[in-house]
Amino acid sequence: MLRTDDFDYHLPPELIASRPLPQRDASRMLVVHRNAQSFEHRSFRDFPSFLHQGDLVVLNNVRVARARFFSDDGRIEILRLNAVTPVDWQCMVKPGKRMREGHSLTIGGCTGTVTAVEPDGTRLIHFDAIPDEQKFGHLPLPHYMQRDDDTEDDERYQTVYARRDAADAVAAPTAGLHFTPEILSTIPHTAITLHVGAGTFQPVKADVITDHVMHRERYEITPDAAAAIESASRRIAIGTTVTRVLEHCAATHGAVTPHHGDTAIFIHPPWSFQRADALLTNFHLPKSTLFMLVSAMAGTDLMKAAYAAAVAERYRFYSYGDCMLIL
Q1: Are strands 110-117 and 323-326 parallel, antiparallel or unpaired?
Q2: What does pTM read for this prediction?
Q3: I want to staple 233 with a disulfide (CB 3.0 to 4.6 A). Which of 54, 61, 64, 161 is the partner?
Q4: CA 323, CA 44: separation in Å to the nearest integer?
């Protein structure tokens, strides 16, 4: 029986990166070799050198929305999780006691009224007009950055390959933040879309990990992407979001096929990976579902040893931090 405490590790707070490096591809990269049970310290710029003939890099091309809003009086903060319609939003609200059913707030002169309080605590809010996202919305940076977003984040909290036709994620697929157009031009790649939700930061409160209820997220796979993924000899997933989609498709459909769907897959030890053959990912929070996922891929003992080495070598952690390549 695996317990949440089995996936804990010590992280000095000063190693949490609150700002990106001046150059996207300047991050350090801890390379974990599963067969040899070893790891080495490299630079992300070395990433292409680890690819072989027939490999395919699989990206998540989702774009982060300016989904964090504050009421005009500054008393209420909301995070839009889903725009059911342009004027009907499912939101997380803080503080919740000020936004019970029938209560209202104003954003940029647009009045929103709570029409329902969901069992999970989220609110359905109906607006009398659409709040201007570009003017009043903010990028929802993770709480551990302990700061508000600014103009630097407008560029750096998006991947260079993020789709332009839609923006609805509430968190970036952070493993992709290291890529530059120049590096992408040298490697075979394709993209799927997983609309990253707030559940990616949801803490595991259960003592036994199998008691944890995983969040659900929408994804899309095009015919071209599905064909490329299925024909590749080795698939390098860029981030845990891509890993979850690939493994969900293998587990539920037996293959990666072109379709839209949603997944609440919870990958933890033991897990037999069917489509994600290697993984590039950032460093994750202790006792998180994401640390459990990388432990499923590389083994909990090896992951803990690798993380301890990263701490000792003063790697930068989390969304704007350094990365790890699991081979």
Answers
A1: unpaired
A2: 0.96
A3: 54
A4: 7
CA-to-CA distance for 263 and 125, rounded, in angstroms?
25
- How are beta strands 28-33 and 323-326 bridged, if at all? parallel
Cα–Cα distances in angstroms (integers) from residue 37 to residues 41, 119, 158, 301, 325, in the given order: 14, 45, 33, 10, 13
Eight-class DSSP state of 286? T
| Paired residues of 29 in beta bridges | 42, 323
Question: What pLDDT shows up at residue 58?
Answer: 99
Alpha-carbon gap, residue 165 to 175, rounded angstroms: 21
pLDDT of 201 > 80? The answer is no
Q: What are the tokens at 140?
A: 């929802």
Do residues 195 and 290 share a domain?
A: yes
Same domain flag for 90 and 164: no
Half-sphere exposure of 108 (CA within 13 A, CB side): 12
Strands 28-33 and 278-282: unpaired
pLDDT at 202: 82
At 60-101, the pLDDT tens digits run 999 999 999 999 999 999 999 999 999 999 999 999 888 999
Q: Of 110, 136, 162, which one is at a domain's C-terminal end?
A: 136
Mean local confidence (pLDDT), 282-294? 97
Q: Are residues 118 and 166 in the same domain?
A: no
CA pair distance 52, 233, nearest whole angstrom: 9
Q: pLDDT at residue 198 above 90?
A: no
Residues 252, 294, 288, 217: is their CA dihedral positive or negative?
A: negative
Same domain? 204 vs 269: yes
Whether the pLDDT of residue 21 is over 90: the answer is yes
- Residue 137 is which amino acid? G
Local confidence band at 120 (pLDDT 50, 70, 90 cut-offs): confident
Contacts of 98 (CB under 8 A, 6+ apart): 75, 76
